[in-house]
Design a protein that fits this description.
The structure holds two protein chains of two kinds. Chain A is mostly helical. Chain A has two helices and one strand. Classes of the chains: A mainly alpha, B alpha/beta.
């Protein structure tokens, strides 16, 4: 599960990053770290969309 | 009295028979199948009918109190299964079927099996909410077990591609009715689980209860129950509820609805990512702004505390002092000048020169030494008399001392 983060958890992480960044007490250093973390998550979400139109795969009953 | 045998009254016999009937286990709970004839709905709410087959007939009644067991309108010629008891109506010496429940035949029996399996699986915990897996919100691969020729598949493909053309659909073509249906459905679920999909949709379009029957089979229920991948059931129409629907992790009323539940809307998702991106940026900007204004505040503070500022302050102070000094000097000068004027006036008042104005003269010797007494002069001495507008050189030609003066 290390690499294939689910979109759900990516969204959850994003929410938490944003709410941490909205905290008034965050240090600028941390804000930058969180920001780049957030941007990575955004990129991840976008990449995860994998925008290749997919044709339906039909399993052969003999395949099993 | 030759006859040894006892003689019984009619009612005794009928009562005896009634007791025999009622002590018979089979007759007290029996399914009887046949065709309805002579059906009469009585105003009291009771229904009288005759149940018959080709060879035989039997009287039946369903009392108003049992009417909950009848879900349709009983009609002539209907093939039904009646659940009830057989007992004797003593007054007429007739036995009849007392119906507790009447089901349409075929469907009736299937329904019976359905209810029995449902109760059994419920007891075994197949329907427990705790066992149900959440349907992934962002499934990338979706398995479908349905007929490859059915409208259900088309509906699913249409909805799925409209919502998200990037989601991979994997179809396991299954027979969804008739012989072998349950087997292919079961192997379809297993094959997709092995293939590796995020969600499985199992279903078919609408049909009669017999058509949908495969989804009421225990083996199908078991396959769904054991499947590690979340399963969405989509059997028939909204009103058709099968065992598969109870076991599935989520029941969709129709195949189209199943596709809506399984496939996330890519546009909404993109919008959401966009929104998050904007929020992230805004949060970062807000932090930067906060820091910037803090820096500005400090810069201002520093500026105020810098030596330059101090110097400026002192310079300013100095200028003020200078100004004050200057003003003071001016005042002082004016004051003194005024004072001087006063003195001049005073001096004027006592000045001897003033007196010269009034005809007095000022007498000195040749060297300018004042002569204030007659005694200071001698006869023939050269003296000078200063008047208001000049000097007279004179000679003492005589003198006379005034007496009484010291």
């Amino acid at each position: 599960m290390a690499k294939s983060k689910t979109l759900e958890s990516a969204f959850e992480d994003l929410e938490s990053v944003i709410s941490q960044m909205e905290d008034k007490n965050i240090t600028l250093d941390d804000a930058f770290k969180k920001y780049s973390e957030g941007m990575k998550l955004i990129k991840y979400c976008n990449d995860a969309l994998d925008k290749v139109e997919k044709k339906i795969v039909i399993l052969n009953q003999e395949d099993k | 009295m030759e006859q040894k045998k006892s003689v019984y009254s009619v009612s005794q016999v009928n009562n005896y028979i009634k007791n025999m009937f009622s002590s018979d286990y089979a007759l007290n709970f029996i399914y009887v199948k046949g065709e309805i004839s002579n059906c009469k709905y009585h105003s009291s709410g009771h229904i009288y009918f005759t149940l018959k087959d080709r060879q035989s007939a039997m009287a039946g009644v369903m009392f108003a109190s049992a009417r909950r067991g009848l879900a349709f309108k009983l009609q002539e010629g209907m093939q039904v299964v009646v659940l009830g008891s057989i007992s004797v109506y003593e007054r007429d010496g007739r036995y009849q079927l007392y119906a507790k429940e009447i089901l349409q035949d075929g469907i009736g029996l299937l329904y019976q099996r359905f209810e029995a399996l449902k109760a059994d699986l419920l007891k075994k915990g197949y329907f427990d909410e705790a066992h149900k897996k959440p349907i992934p919100s962002y499934a990338k691969t979706i398995g479908i077990v349905t007929a490859d020729t059915g409208a259900a598949l088309q509906d699913i493909i249409n909805i799925a591609t409209r919502r998200n053309p990037y989601v991979q659909l994997v179809l396991y073509p299954a027979a969804v009715q008739g012989d072998g249906a349950k087997e292919t459905i079961v192997s379809g679920i297993k094959a997709l689980e092995t293939y590796g999909v995020d969600t499985i949709i199992v279903g078919r379009g609408g049909g009669s209860i017999e058509d949908l029957w495969a989804f009421n089979e225990e083996s199908v229920a078991l396959a769904i129950y054991q499947c590690q991948v979340p399963v969405i059931s989509a059997v028939g129409h909204e009103t058709d509820v099968t065992i598969a629907d109870y076991v599935a992790d989520l029941r969709a009323p129709t195949p189209s609805a199943a596709a809506e539940l399984a496939v996330f809307d890519v546009q909404r998702m993109e919008h959401q990512i966009q929104e998050n991106s904007i929020r992230l940026l805004a949060a970062m900007q807000a932090q930067l702004d906060r820091y910037k204004s803090r820096i500005e505040r400090y810069a201002l503070l520093m500026q105020n505390l810098s030596p330059m500022a101090k110097l400026n302050d002192e310079r300013q102070y100095l200028m003020q002092i200078e100004e004050r000094m200057y003003l003071r000097m001016q005042d002082l000068y004016k004051e003194r000048k005024h004072q001087l004027a006063l003195y001049i006036e005073q001096l004027k008042a006592v000045s001897p020169l003033e007196k010269l104005d009034r005809g007095f003269g000022f007498v000195t010797d040749e060297d300018g030494r004042k002569i204030s007494s007659v005694k200071d002069t001698v006869k023939g001495q050269q003296i000078q008399i200063t008047l208001k507008d000049g000097r007279i050189d004179a000679k003492v030609i005589g003198k006379e001392e005034t007496y009484g003066q010291k």
